[in-house]
What we know:
Chain A has 780 residues and is mainly alpha-helical. Helices cover 68% and strands 0% of the residues of chain A. Chain B is of the alpha/beta class.
Amino acid sequence: MSPVPSFSLTADERQRVERIDRLVARGAVGVAELVLAMSDASWTVRRAAVAALVSLGDDAVAPLAAWLSERRTSEPAIAAAIDALAGSIGGAVTPAVVALLDHADPAVAADAAAILGRRRAAAAVAALARQLAHQDDNVAVAAIEALGAIGGSAAVEPLIAVLGRREFFRTFAALQVLPRTGDPRAIAPLAALLGDDAYRLEAARALGRTGSALAIAPLASLVPPGGGEALVRLVAHALADLVVRAEWAGAVDRVVAELRQVIGPRLDQFVAALRGADPTERAAIAALLGRIGDASALPALSRLLDDRAIVEIASDAIQRISRAHDAALHAALRATEPAARAAALAVVTSRREAAAVRELLGDDDPEVRARACDALARIGDTTAVPAVFALLGDAQVRVAHAAAAAIQSLGTAQTAGLAIAALETGAPGVRRQALRIIGYLGCAGAFDAVRAATEDPDRRIAELAVAAIGALDDRRVDPALAALCQRPDASLRAAAMRAIAMRSSAPAIELLERGLGDGAGWVRYYACQGLGRIGDPRAVSAVIARLADAMPHVRIAAIEALAQLDTPAAWQALCAVVQSPDPDQQRAALLGIGLRSTPAALAFLLDAARAPDPATRLIAVSGLARRGEPAALVALGAAALDADPGVRDAALSLLGERPDRAAADALVTTALATDPDHPAQRALSQPGGARVEAIAAQLAAAAASERTVTILVAALARMGDAAATAALFGGLALPDPVARRLAATALVASGAAGARRRVSELAAGDPDPDVRLACAAAVG
Amino acid sequence: MNPAVAANGLALTPQLFAIFTRLVEDASGMHYGPRDRELFAAKLVAHASDLGFDSLLDYYYRLRYDDPDGRELAQLIEVLLVHETYFFRELAPLRQLVEGHLAAVVARRGRARVWSAACSTGEEPFTMAMLLDELGLLDRVEILGSDLSAQAIAAATSGRHKKRALRDDPPAALAARYLEPSAAGVAVAPRIRDAVRFRVVNLLDPGAVRALGTFDAVVCRNVLIYFGDDQVARVVDQLAGSLAPDGLLAVGVAESLLRFGTALVCEERGRSFFYRRAP
Lengths: 780, 279
């Protein structure tokens, strides 16, 4: 193995870094020396100097700007100066750096543009836009890129002019930035580039990035009448990207309608282009076919199910088509590929397909058989119960389990009789499933058969019979369970205790208390569970004694029981156990603590929200979601940005479920801190709660950045309900022209009633010229 | 209807998903993310229910605290393993490995060793055996196939496979010569079947991997995609350690080790990519 390079400091470097720390403490006096330190030979020392200059804020701005303008001693030092100005906490950075945009040295001007872009300095947009016509390509490109970082919508016209001039480097840079503005004015000039060989490919990709229905026809025009599969694949890629962006912007319905109209008649070309396509191209074509929703694409999509790289996308596409068309669903249920049949079964919701689904109970593929059971349960086809009973003995556990679950769900009058018959005459696997069904449904008349099964030599059958007997409504149950508690077989005693744990009769409580002293760990385990479930405070002392049990799972069951016993002693015990080094014990205690609304519980939950393992953080999040304190909401918001997707999604879901304004504000704050593809943005656009109110308030706030407005408008557009649409209409009257322009574009793209008329009014009469032009382009 | 609904106890909550996947990953390396949750839940719930549990938490505690020989956990892992493979899968790199590398090793040293790591039901080592036999080298190359799943290894040893093991437009000549169709699927020719040794090996077990010795070629394809990054780094380290000085490692065409900072260098041979130990 190669030696790993050492990143530790030399003694000399350490001294220089310490010198830098002392200079920071001296404030402005130390700036000159810190600026010199940017030229240090050591990367580590240079980084320390940058951090120091950043922290000194305005004291360092003018010296840094002067150095960047006049000294520029080396590339590493220049990079350090740029980093320092880009990260500075000072408020004077933007005007000082804007002044450098007009510097005679193009390198200085380009650096200034880069700094402004990194700072997302909205106040510099006009000055940057002027640099688009700079004679030096590097300056112009840097300005374009900076506008892209800040939000180029205020510079759409200058960017469009760049496209028109066809200056190679600048045009390519503008092709990256313009689509992201979401401005409909960008479509026509982007489409015009499709006719130029030098820019065609990148212009096509750029049109895809607009997410606009207006871009579909120009893209479709690239598809040659017969052949040209490479171009078809490029267009498919762009269109698939377009759909994703339209979905984010809340405009997907209109986009899909346009796709069906424009691309639908040429579907066979896209299907043919699957040949020779790489995985990303196949994924794009599959996604497109799914959106267009034509059933003729099903065979081609079915063949993609073997490709692990895109099986999910292909399956999703099949499901989209099947959901939309009965005929397509019918065809998919009969597809040759089992994965296609399985995908189609997942979307069956109507009894019209009951006959076809029943046929699939006999399919060769186990996943198909299992999903057929699921589908029959979903559509409530009770006539299928006898046929499903036949699958209880399926060789595949997954299928037998699905069959049992379906029977439990369908629950017909004949089920009890069938289950008892299966118990008495079936193979072992069938008998086990029959016992589960009997236990679930509490089948009347099953006591004798189940009681007999508790003596079965097959241990699993005997244990299941014990569990089932506890679920029956029969006066003989309690004595039977009491007798089972005396059996020499520990697993049967444990099964009996588990069954007793589900009952709350006086004899049951007595048996549970006795069970705490059983020699077998699992008996004590279920005894603790039962006493916790019953919640009788008289059991607290006995349960607390189990905290010292020899078996770890019994100790945990005791903790879980205490979580449900609302006494001071139980609380004290939980507070002691929550500090345990054992993560399972800690989590069990935390669960109980989370159920308490006391102030003391909050501290534990906040601490646990920072635990290293995701499972503990999840429990903390659940507890915090029940609380109203500001600290709890802040912690939930932080959890919504957790690196672990499980914690993140749970926090977002819990925040989304809360109807209060504080939770909505927390969700807005979280969404604004994330990228477009973060789940927080999807969570923000779920209808309900006080979200519209919170979004509208943020939109109306002064100095909302273009990025903020873009995210919030898109959330309203995706929400699509009456309140959200009303808020978008409200956005047309906001003081901020960026907000008016983006709200107008979103309303027209969503097809909301009255949108075109209202936006046309803005096109004619809005005080801002950019708004008038964008509105005119949106309504066409 | 029984109000103590068993189905609730068998619901895979986010917390249960986190603790079960951690348990499985620590033992087997297999990593599960949100996208795998549905399939993971379906297999886990069916298995736990079949064992008689009506609570996944009870099952978790059994695995964690009452499974002294690890047999229960091994059973669960067996259920979760994905046995996705077929004959002649990604054939070009295998052909390049056999014709462009193993043949040269045999020419130099008279013999060679090749290991198909995580071979599932054996289609990959059998494919290599066919290619070697085409060149007349089968008797000079020791082929080992290994997998974590005892069931898969048992199936591999039988040499009998389902119909789905043959797909993707198989090369007609190879299929005709070495595979015999049957009512249940296909059977591998006895000469090919007997040329491959199979063993159960956990790639995370350094002792078990070291005990296999060194190889002129190691094939570990479309397996690392199931591992988390930490585990991939560990496994690749093990595999690198099992390579002979001029040995080659082949991973799946969609997999790359370049971001892991391993002790391996990547090289292209005949439009296929392989890794060898850095000098």
